[in-house]
UniProtKB/TrEMBL annotation, chain A:
Domain of life from the UniProt record: Bacteria
Pathway: Purine metabolism; 7-cyano-7-deazaguanine biosynthesis
Signal peptide: none
Catalytic activity: 7,8-dihydroneopterin 3'-triphosphate + H2O = 6-carboxy-5,6,7,8-tetrahydropterin + triphosphate + acetaldehyde + 2 H(+)
Enzyme class, broadest EC rank: lyase
Organism: Hydrobacter penzbergensis
Enzyme nomenclature, EC number: 4.1.2.50
Protein name from the UniProt record: 6-carboxy-5,6,7,8-tetrahydropterin synthase
GO molecular function terms attached to this record: 6-carboxytetrahydropterin synthase activity; metal ion binding
Cofactors, names only: Zn(2+)
Keyword field: Lyase, Metal-binding, Zinc
TrEMBL record, chain B:
A Pfam family reported for this protein in Swiss-Prot or TrEMBL: PTPS
Functional pathway: Purine metabolism; 7-cyano-7-deazaguanine biosynthesis
EC class name: lyase
Highest rank taxon of the organism: Bacteria
GO molecular function, one term: 6-carboxytetrahydropterin synthase activity
Protein name: 6-carboxy-5,6,7,8-tetrahydropterin synthase
């Protein structure tokens, strides 16, 4: 089994805000991240797939094709966008890094060929904060 | 010992912004600023590097106490811009496009009045890992 990772990045605005709560409770739970006029991040996305190298090519998967799938189904929807307002697959969800990683997994998995398994979505919100999702 | 030395302090803040000229049509804004003109904003992790040049104080050995510099940056920069929308929340950009260039000049002006006059000040601002500006040039 070989693991292959493609690194992409996107810049986006968001806020952490639960519309079912009062402004006071949102500020108590989410602090400065609840700022009503948004803030933003440079996100770094690591997409890891796993499988066995093709005997004819030596490739697990053509990483250029993987990049095109990520760009079409994830980056084009997120880059220079407002995660709360502009992104169809995050509608109605809290735009935490955790939920965004799960959403990215769901965006990518249906578009990978059968012999390739998605292994991990690792998403950095800042250089000090990241989450990993393994589809469990 | 009478040698000039440069000292640096790195800080960071996260903010939303958009690049938009209200005097222009939407078409012209999109042509000039592209994705950065998104009406619902986008955002960055800004990395700020503040450089001071001077002769170390013979009594302390410091060009400046970097703990004091850190506190000045926190007061002047973080309280204004961290986890804020630069267009909507910062009076400095009410009528100024918040490009990295303009943010760097604003930060320089905010810090300059708090840094001892005999020290040279330079501000370097990273908007992304690949895009950064420096002022004064």
């Amino acid at each position: 089994m070989v693991y292959l990772t493609r690194l992409e990045h996107f810049n986006a605005a968001h806020k952490l805000f639960n519309p079912a709560w009062s402004r006071e409770k949102n500020e108590a739970v989410f602090g400065v991240c609840a700022n009503e006029n948004w803030h933003g991040h440079n996100y770094e996305l690591f997409v890891t797939i796993k499988g066995h190298p093709d005997p004819d090519t030596g490739f697990l998967y053509d990483v250029k094709k993987l990049s095109v799938i990520i760009k079409e189904h994830v980056i084009d929807k997120l880059d220079h966008k407002n995660l709360n307002m502009d992104v169809d697959f995050m509608a109605g969800q809290l735009c935490s890094t955790e939920n965004l990683a799960i959403g990215i997994w769901k965006q990518l998995e249906p578009h990978l060929p059968e012999q390739v398994k998605l292994h991990c979505i690792k998403l950095y919100e800042t250089s000090r904060i990241y989450v990993e999702y393994f589809g469990e | 010992m009478n040698h000039k030395v440069a000292v640096f302090r790195k800080e960071h803040f996260n903010a939303a912004h958009r690049l938009h000229n209200p005097a222009w049509s939407e078409e012209k804004n999109n042509a000039e600023f592209g994705l950065c003109n998104n009406e619902h904003y986008h955002g960055h992790n800004y990395e700020l590097v503040v450089k001071l040049v001077g002769v170390p104080d013979p009594a302390t050995g410091y060009v400046m106490n970097l703990k004091d510099l850190s506190e000045i940056i926190r007061e002047e920069v973080h309280t204004r811009f961290d986890h804020k929308n630069l267009n909507l929340d910062a009076v400095e950009f009410a009528n100024l496009n918040p490009t990295a260039e303009n943010i760097a000049v604003v930060i320089y002006q905010l810090l300059r009045k708090r840094i001892p006059e005999h020290l040279e000040l330079t501000v370097r601002l990273y908007e992304t890992k690949r895009n950064f500006v420096e002022y004064p040039a």
